[in-house]
Amino acid sequence: MFLDIGLSYLEVFFLVRILICNQKGGTGKTRTCMLLASALRAVGKSVVLEDHDPQQSLATWSQSLPEPFLFEGNAEEGGFLVIDTPPRLDLTDHTGRNLLTRLVQGADRILLVAELGGLELAAAKPMADFIQHTLAEIPADQRGRAFVLWNKIQARTKEGKQDLAPLAEYLGLPALRTTLPFLHPYHTIQYTGWAGITGEARARVLDLALEIVA
Q: Which fold has domain 7-213?
C-alpha cells in the first residue's frame, strides 16, 4: 500500500517525516501512528501515511475512515509523513536491516515506542542501539532526532510510578516529556476514530504531536 519512493522525493515534498519503530511487536506502534496522524490532521495539517507492516493494519484502518488518509501523493507544504514499521524486525536479517536503515536515514523524527518493564526494555535496547549507530553515520546537520515514547503507562502500578529518566538513559535516547497512558480510547481508535478520543485523552495526544514537531 505504501509508495516505495526515493528519499530525494521525500525531501522535496514532505516537511517532517516521522518514523514509528521498535523491533518488538505489541508496543503500540500502529496505534501511535493512528493517534499522531489524527491529531495532526485535527489541527489542520496535511498528513500522508506509509505502512511497512505486512499486515497493513494502518492502511486498513485508514480505508475505514469517512475521509481516508493519503498513502500515495504529496503532502501540502507544512505537511507530515507518518511511517509505520513491521510489527517485528529481525535486525540480523539483511532485508529488514536495510529497510530500517533507509527509513532511519530519511526520517526527521524517530520515535522508539517502548513499554516499561525489564523484559520490554531489554527487547527495545537493540533497536535503540541500531538507531544511534545509524544516526552517528549521518552528518549532524542532516540527521533526524530520535526519542523514546513511553507507551501504555499505568500510573497506579509500581512500574508506572518509577523514575523514567534512568530507563531512557539505559536505552541511550532522550525520552519525550509526554507519555501515553494505558487508556481505553487509545486502544479503540481503530473503531471510533479521532472522534472517540476526547477530553484529557485528546489533550495528551495533541501535546505529544506538538512536542514531536517542535
A: Rossmann fold (3.40.50)
